[in-house]
Design goal:
The chain is of the alpha+beta class and about 325 residues long. Helix content is about 15%, strand content about 30%. The N terminus is likely disordered.
Amino acid sequence: NRGILLLQFVFCFFACSPPAKLQYLLEPPVQVEVAGRRGDNVTLPCILRIKPNHYKIKWTKLDPEHLGQQNIIMISNANAFKPYGPVGRRASLLRAHTMDASLLLSHLELGDDGRYQCELINGIEDENIVITLRIEGVVFPYQSQHGRYKFNFHEAELACAEQDGMLASYSQLYRAWTEGLDWCNAGWILDGTVHYPIVHPRPVCGGNLPAGIRSYGPKNKNHDRFDAFCFTSQIPGSVFYITGAFSYDQAVYACKRQGSALALVGQLYAAWRFQKYDQCNGGWLKDGSVRFPIVSPRKRCGGVPEAGVRTFGFPSKTTHLYGAYCYR
């Protein structure tokens, strides 16, 4: 027993001891999170408290699933900086003062969500801090027009991109669940795993399991087929509704006459979330689905007590008549 206790003590001495105190970089709060929406400019803070004689600052974006991969954004010294990759083209150093190594990211994109590392390199005692950038947005489930569970992973990625989004990360899906997302169909997310969020447990959705995110774990990206959970953020334009009894082709023309195009599913969700868009009429979208957004639930607008974007699925484009949701 003494041997086991000694082993536990030695392990905890190394594994449980607090991380070394930073010498050159200013110690951040316990958890640093910066939030912004698509199109915003944000600053990721990194401040020097002591400046070595010779040093470099390296900013990298860490792999979102902690797989160890790093994508270099920028390397700088006291005089100049060199950007790398697609994120680097939108990045610069803030340099509000001589000790400021903060990163300024402009025109945020959906894929910018994740963890960023500011590393001071002086060849002797390198140090780093990690900051999380959270893109504010909305997760929406998406299904093929051909029915349930038709996407392999790559097709799910493409489907989200075609609807002005990208596959959601697990943290984005989890946040959406805490905000009320309840969906009984399993869908792909960004890391290649498959899940579905349940707020109100019921027999047809996993039986008597408690509320939570039900997981199927990693699946074969080429052969297994599910729906998709997509993520999008604010949009630069606006969605508007044209009243009418249109076939799909007539709806396309109605939007075109207004100098716009049929809205994408992600654009409608973004308008609902960020612009509080509320419209109690079904309308065509570009993918051939018919939906309507409800901010203030009422009996005559779907009869569901929660706010959300309601769907009529993918009706016949010629025999079913609806209004049109346009985007410009």
